[in-house]
Design goal:
With 524 residues, the protein is of the alpha/beta class. It is 30% helix and 23% strand. It folds into two domains: 3-205, Gcn5-related N-acetyltransferase (GNAT) (Aminopeptidase, 3-Layer(aba) Sandwich), CATH 3.40.630; 222-496, 4-Layer Sandwich (Nitrilase/N-carbamoyl-D-aminoacid amidohydrolase), CATH 3.60.110. The chain has helices at residues 18-28, 38-47, 72-75, 116-130, 154-162, 171-176, 212-215, 238-254, 276-279, 282-290, 293-306, 348-354, 383-390, 406-423, 482-491, 513-523, and strands at residues 8-12, 53-57, 60-70, 99-107, 135-141, 180-185, 199-205, 222-231, 259-261, 310-312, 316-319, 325-332, 338-342, 356-357, 365-367, 370-374, 396-400, 426-430, 432-433, 450-452, 464-467, 474-481. α8 (238-254) runs parallel beside α11 and α13 runs parallel beside α14. The N and C termini lie far apart (86 Å). Residues 514-524 have low confidence and may be disordered. Keywords: Hydrolase. One of its GO terms (molecular function) is hydrolase activity. It holds the Pfam family Acetyltransf_1.
């Protein structure tokens, strides 16, 4: 059949198709009994219409996929073909089943070579996703096994087919369509002499499946993130800064954002409220700034509740119980709770000029819009941290940052984009702009806030979901589809997290709680 002459159409099977279906099945299944009776097909269409799929060429039936709805627990265990068949060749369809069972996939021999079987398999998978069913199961014949049955066991044959040392027209095709062999079925179809009665129990898992009892509790898969590219400038009072913060929170909430993100040390201009002479003492200035942190935490937590939005409150300087200084990001949940993530790697400037120290804890935070991690600026340049968060099923990584020059910004940007690719997550980069020459270490800023995605077909071609105009105060929005992360982690062009060689290396976070306790006691 010349490809230019094809007029293909994918649709559901109807009872009117039987006059074409019968001769097609008789032709393809001549060695195992031919076509199903019309009564069987009519009942299957009536009970599970979505599962019966055909391909036609200009009205001619050329491909068919027949499917039943079944109970996973029953048919994921050893069974025979007859367990699926009732009296008078009636296929036992379970309308309350949680899975699909592939009964037949057949293509007109004249149309082989056009990958039409793959189309039917993909259509069947889409039905499984749309109906929120757990898996597709199938008993797969191994029709070439009889040729080597005297030389090897069926399990050896299956292993060789999986390794592509042998080719089996059915098993090789199913493996190429992401089905996994779960077990060997004995006496599955005794009259199948070519397979010697054996079959493989194949399974394709719907990675988006949500059990019915959990669906009401499940988080949304669509998340909107809003970020503030904040202008550093002189402020006359703490109230003026908080007024500007609330303005942006209000604006982001008006667009139904799930998150509002602020940059690292966004309230640093408040150091300018000191007496001019005191500003020259940078350690005194940064401790002065830390004196406002509790008020900002309280006010931004209030805004999170009042505007119904989760706030990544940039980062602020915190005085620890031991009197030491830390650079800390606060997550203000819209339910009123507040959590913290300290910067773990401090820059040489932070350590030298401000005596800020690195924190010791790293965690993933559960929110009502996904599992998130927070790495402050320099931390994102250390790939181990992102991987540790990914191992805790992080969906989104937030990176509040503050850089003065473009080359410093590009270090953060390129590392953030690498974290999105290697950990198959979204990364939200949020920075500050503007110049405050009157305050030490705040004289220049450079930023272009961005949202990065994994690099695969489900995402933008350059893996950039959104970005701001460089060095301009503005807000940015991006809609993130968390279900796409699930798909790319399991079925992407590459699957970085799954393909790690854990037999060669591993990564773990040390528990420093005991050491921190001893340090606190020594300091006291």
């Amino acid at each position: 059949m010349p490809i230019d002459d094809l007029q293909l159409n994918l649709r559901n099977l109807t009872t009117d198709d039987y006059p074409q279906l019968k001769p097609l099945m008789d032709r393809v299944y001549h060695d195992i009994g031919g076509a199903w009776p019309k009564l069987t097909i009519d009942r299957l269409i009536n009970e599970f219409p979505d599962g019966q799929i055909v391909i036609e060429d200009d009205g001619k039936l050329i491909g068919v996929a027949l499917t039943a709805q079944v109970d996973y627990e029953q048919f994921s265990n050893p069974h025979r073909y007859d367990d699926l068949i009732g009296q008078r060749e009636t296929i036992q369809n379970a309308s309350d089943g949680d899975s699909m069972y592939g009964i037949d996939v057949l293509i007109d021999p004249e149309y082989r070579g056009y990958r039409l079987g793959r189309r039917l398999y993909e259509a069947r998978k889409e039905v499984c996703r749309q109906l929120n069913l757990k898996a597709i199961l199938a008993g797969g014949r191994i029709p070439e096994y009889h040729l080597v049955a005297d030389e090897m066991s069926p399990t050896e044959y299956i292993d060789k087919v999986a390794r592509k040392e042998l080719h089996d027209p059915i098993l090789s095709f199913q493996l190429a369509n992401d089905f996994q062999v779960k077990r060997l079925l004995r006496k599955y179809l005794p009259e199948d002499e070519k397979s010697q009665g054996y079959a493989t129990l194949l399974e394709w898992n719907n990675i988006l499946y949500e059990p019915a009892e959990l669906m009401l509790e499940s988080r949304p898969t669509q998340v909107r993130v809003g970020a503030v590219q904040w202008q550093m400038r002189e402020f006359a009072s703490v109230e003026a800064v908080l007024q500007q913060v609330e303005y942006f929170v209000d604006a982001l909430a008006d667009y139904q954002s799930d998150f509002a993100v602020f940059p690292e040390l966004f309230n640093a201009p408040l150091m300018g409220l000191q007496e001019r002479a005191d500003q020259q003492d940078q350690i005194a200035a940064i401790r002065f700034l830390a004196g406002f942190t509790e008020r900002f935490k309280s006010e931004m937590s209030r805004m999170a509740v009042a505007y119904n939005i989760n706030i990544i409150a940039g980062s602020m300087v915190e005085v620890g119980e031991n009197g030491r200084l830390y650079n800390v990001a606060y997550l203000c949940h819209r339910d009123g709770s507040v959590e913290r993530q300290a910067k773990l790697h401090v820059t040489p400037q932070e350590r030298r000029d401000w005596m800020i120290e690195g924190g010791e804890a790293l965690q993933v935070f559960d929110t009502d819009a996904g599992r998130i991690g927070i790495l402050i600026c320099y931390d994102v340049e250390f790939p181990e941290l992102g991987r540790l968060l990914a191992d805790q099923d992080m969906d989104m990584l937030f990176v509040p940052f503050w850089t003065d020059t473009k080359n410093g910004y590009l270090r953060v940007r390129h590392c953030a984009q690498a974290r999105a690719i290697e950990n198959e997550c979204y990364v939200v980069l949020c920075g500050s702009v503007g110049n405050v020459p009157s305050i030490e270490n705040l004289d220049i800023q450079y930023a272009q806030s961005s949202v990065f995605s994994p690099s695969d077909f489900a995402f933008p071609h350059d893996a950039v979901m959104a970005e701001t105009t460089p060095n301009t105060e503005m807000i940015m929005f991006s809609d993130l589809d968390l279900s796409r992360l699930t798909i790319v982690r399991n079925e992407g062009s590459v699957t970085n997290l799954k393909d790690r060689r854990k037999d060669l290396f591993d990564l773990r976070l040390r528990d420093w709680s005991h050491k921190l306790g001893s340090l606190d006691s020594e300091d006291s």
